Amino acid sequence: MSAWFIALLQALLCVALAPLLVGWVRRVKARLQNRRGAPLLQPYADLHKLMIKETRVAHTASPLFRVAPYIVFVAIWLACATVPLIALDLPTAGIADIIVLVGLLALGRFFLALAGMDVGTAFGGMGASREMLISALAEPALLMAVFTLAMTAHSTSLVGVMEHHLTDGFLLRPSYLFAFGALVLVALAECGRIPVDNPSTHLELTMVHEAMLLEYTGRHLALMEWAAWIKLLLYGVLIVNVFLPWGIATVFTPAALALGLIAVVVKLALLGAALALGETLMAKMRLFRVPGFLNLALLLGLLGLLSHVILEVGA
Amino acid sequence: MSLAVMPLLQQFVVLLAALALFLSFVLLAQTRLVAAIHVFAWQGALVAAVTFTVALTGHAGHLYFSAILTLILKALLIPWMLHRLVRRLGLERHTERLRHPALVVMAGVALVIFSYWLVLPMVEQGLAFTRNIIAVSLALVLIGLLMMVFRHQAVAQVLGFMSMENGLFLAAVSATAGMPLVVELGVAFDLLVAMVLFGVFFFQIRESIDSLDVDRLNRLTEVE
Amino acid sequence: MSDSPLVLALSSLWLALGSSAISLLAGREPRLLRLAAVPLLGLAGTAALVAGLWTLIAETNASAILPLGLPWLPWHVRLDPLSGVFLVLIGLVTGAVGLYGRDYVRHFEGGRESLITLGGFSGLFLAGMLLVVLADDAFVFMIAWEVMSLSSYFLVAFQHEQAANRRAAFLYLLMAHVGGLAILLGFGVLAAFGGGFDFASMRAAELTPLWAGVAFALAFLGFGMKAGLAPLHAWLPEAHPVAPSHISALMSGVMLKVAVYGFIRVVLDLNGEVHWSWGVTLIAVGGLSALVGVLFALVQTDLKRLLAYSSVENLGIVFIALGLALLFQSTGHPNLAALALVAALYHALNHALFKSLLFLGAGAILHSTHERDLDQMGGLLRRMPWTGSFFLIGCLSISALPPFNGFVSEWLIFQSALQAWNLESGVLRSLVPIASAVLALTGALVAATFVKVYGIAFLGQARSRHVRRARPSPKGMWAGQGVLAALCVLFGVLPTQILGLLDPVAEQLLGTGVPQAGANGWLWLTPISAETASYSAPLTILLLALIAGAAIWWFKRRASWRVRRCDPWDCGFAAPTPRMQYSAASFAQPIRRVFALLFLIDEGQEQGADGVTRYRLRIADRARGWLYLPVARAVDSSARQVARLQSGSVRLYLGWTLVTLLVLLWVIS
User: Fold this and answer.
1) B127 touches chain A (CB under 8 A)
2) Based on the domain organization, do C484 and C627 belong to the same domain?
3) Structural domain span for residue A110
4) CA distances from C208 to C182, C214, C271, C332, C431 (A)
């Protein structure tokens, strides 16, 4: 029973931490660009403001437009809740393995794209079309990286992968290195970060994610934004906890859980700072450069798999 | 041999070899000449690092020497010469469009699998580690050749040729702990001479066909 | 007792024939088609469903010899678990089509097309499919197969006034017969070694590896052609869309699966030993079909054509899974082979459900708007809420999104592909995951395709006047769709039960099932073991509903629950018009550009008769030019050669007869 309780706690923690991560990235980015930037907790205030504001819906919108934010939010939250954040081996991890997780994210994206097309303006369709292009190319790369991990651990469950990594100790696995690279590139593309998409742009012709949200206001917008932040957190946790699982709680004692929390927060803070640095150094690319970028991710995934088969297994 | 039971230094060799393979792919798809030369330099440095690591594990003392030789020659001297050539030919901003980069890269992946299939019959347990590295080296050679097939630009072709040599060297180092020193010196000298000759040739080619696109060499035919 | 399912199945066959017979009277009394023939079709489907379920649950195995056919070769029929699964598949779709068809065929009444053709051949078509599944000797099998092919030819040619439909039907007939020939030769090889045309003696035959390979190749060619695998798929997107929509549903949803059945029957049941290279061939061809199918589906603007291309893709997925099953079976991992086989069957069932659902939805749109072109649609969700909701479920299922059914089967295929580390050969170990990367790419592209379909057709604003005035479809039609939609959800949420039903097939064919899949209780689907992978569809949907409910409840308590309607954002310029929306072609443009290599694109502007310049985009299938036209041309020219015999002179004909007689006498002397 306590395991289910901790699982619930962890699920709530995902939702609570996501705005903090975004605030942190924005803050570091602002500092790197010699701006003062908004306070660390600004995203929470933004969410609150959006929640209490009046919600407006276009005349041309269908019921799907109003349902979509809930589905997007819930699907991504559920996906995030199945990722081990502070403790391994929670019962929620059995609900979904990595492939189901990818599927849940795809469910969210499906409704996001549909919602973009619902009002019937040009921007929504444009955003949806581009989003589906990016996701179509990112998905094989993501699964290739995932398969590399799964072939090593003989399991597609995240818990299995992390446990395998923990028991193996530190090995110089080229496959992990490549899978890491692939996962980082995919995460940048899927979360709509520079160089694939710019989360802070409102320049109409370059938008991808924002174009789909253009018609949303009030609580609907809050849910959509929050969902996007949770997704960023999810990919962050996936990257740090799969490749550097050390520190995560393997037993459910308060001390271990506290250590797990501290470890993941520190790891995420470092990753967030790296993201901010990367976004400061890089420029956004043209849309039709994105396939090349994701091709690189796919190549990394493939090389990860091949180096696993050729160099690591022997036999 | 499974990676989990290898000593750390061997793991390191495996890692470096995998990275060298990755750089071969980057070289294959890199459209900017200057960036490609840098990638080549890094690959040379990786091969030197492999040599150095093998020297650490083995007893062949002369490998230290050949590691340093490789580093100086492939990571510094040849890239520097190429860089200078590119500058003198005014090609710093030259980019070359591959027709279907994704397909070329996939062909490279297929070559990797093919070379693995080729070395599979070497089943002796003791050779497993060597065999896997040889698979990677063979892939380096084949990808270098693939690059020479798909690139039009003469400088890029030279890069492909040089990375083939990297593959051969990697195979030699990991399979037999390096060649005799005399042979290695000879090969190094050959490379240098080749490099000088390439430089001369580039100017000659450009003199006669006004471009370094090797596809235009067919203009040199005497009968119309 | 164990014969009762077989009796039921045979009676469903008679019901189908009865439906066909009643339709003969429809020329005089058109209402008969709607009131008797179509409901009988549904009834036949229900009977087949019950017979199939009975077989699977009781795990019976019944056979009989019918007093029909040749004196030395009476008709053998048999109902085993493999036939049972496909009876269930046929039954589910036909039942729903029976519900739907009653209102759908109504608009053919008073039309120019013959109702006798429609009703008569529909019944024959169903009877043919049922008999293929029940056949227990090659003779019955081929007769049933030809009945199925020929009657569906007449259904494709139903609206034959348009030249394009006639061409499609001819192409279909041609390919069906090339395929049929290959199957016949395949049976010939098996019969030669087995010493008889009944399946029992073929099963007992010991084939040499070479001839087993030949039999496999022939079966793969024949059944693969019928299943629409690339690069022989070009007939499918021509033929399936031009039949009436409920028949398209049967063709895409069911007939392609009958080809899968035939393939499994011949290769896994009759042919005995399998070779690993067969598995690799299947995976390669399946992967190619999946990718080609979905990319061409993505760029279509005709809704029914798009759905037909997506059938190519789904059959590709089924064959990838079958390839995995063969690969694992040949390398001595029967338990993994069982998993892959069950995944293939599961996907076949799922595809039958969601593809029929989508075709019925397309039929409903066609019925209300007389429109198949996506670029004329828009905003249909508000005009046809029921059809729109069911179509959404179909789109979600086909895009393999949890917690719907398509996801479960694709997940199972991924799981069995990831067991590739068990294989000894390193090359296979690396190739199989790459095949699954192709599957992943396909999955994502399918999602893009169906976002496009749903977004363009049902969301946004209507792009033409008659779509703006669309009326909801009649009750019978949405009831048919509703049944299929409910089944899609059910098959997605209760995978352990479905796997339990499919298990006997694996036991029958491979000697081992997948008992571990439901070992941790019905909540958890664990294809290998709980540590390796687990998925809980019931909990997924429960949690999704709970959290969404909680969020809505939380917002509803607050004063700001009501929303205010406003105009969409117009950038401060003129209000957006429907023609400013993204169209089907523009939605697909980025992906079309990335995969440009595959398409033959003719793009430009052209001046219409009214003097207006229009954008022109035609995307052709390369396979057609490479493979089909040469074959068609060869057949055409050889037919012309043969036609020389027909000079019109009676004496010449008699001369030919005399020569033939002499040759024959010389041969037998």
Assistant:
1) no
2) no
3) 2-312
4) 19, 10, 11, 19, 28
- Find residues 272-291 of chain A whose CB sits inside 8 Å of chain C: 287-288, 291
Q: Which residues of B touch A148 (CB under 8 A)?
A: none
Using the 8-state DSSP alphabet, how is residue C627 labeled? I
DSSP letter (8 states) at residue B5 = G
- What total of structural domains would you count in chain A? 1
| A172 and B CB contact within 8 Å | yes
Residue C659: give the domain boundaries.
Answer: 623-668
**C177 domain residue, yes or no:** no
* ipTM confidence: 0.96
| Per-state percent for chain B, helix, strand, coil, to nearest 5 | 80, 0, 15
Query: At C491, is the pLDDT very low, low, confident or very high (cuts 50, 70, 90)?
Result: very high
CA distance B1 to chain C (A): 13
Residue among B100, B116, B120 whose CB faces C597 most closely: B100
pLDDT tens, position by position, B54-87: 888 876 778 888 889 889 988 999 999 999 988 8
Distance CA C396, CA A111 (A): 10
Tell me how far apart the alpha carbons of residues C374 and C152 are, in angstroms, rounded to a whole number: 26
- Selecting from B1, B3, B25 the residue whose C-beta is nearest the C-beta of A171 gives B3
Q: Does C568 touch chain A (CB under 8 A)?
A: yes
Alpha-carbon distance of C425 to C418, in angstroms, equals 15
Beta bridge partner(s), residue C566: A58
- Domains held by chain C: number: 2
- Residue A7 DSSP SS3: helix
Same domain, yes or no: C294 and C420: yes
Flag whether residue B162 sits within 8 Å of chain A, measured between CB atoms: no
The secondary element (H helix, E strand) that includes residue C429 is: helix C426-457
Mean pLDDT of C638-654: 81
Ranges assigned E (strand) in C593-660? 599-607, 613-621
Whether C392 and chain B come into contact, CB under 8 Å, resolves to: no
Structure tokens at C581: 């929306």
Nearest to B120 among C426, C431, C597 (CB): C426
Q: How many domains would you assign to chain B?
A: 1
Nearest CB among A178, A302, A313 relative to B2 is that of: A313
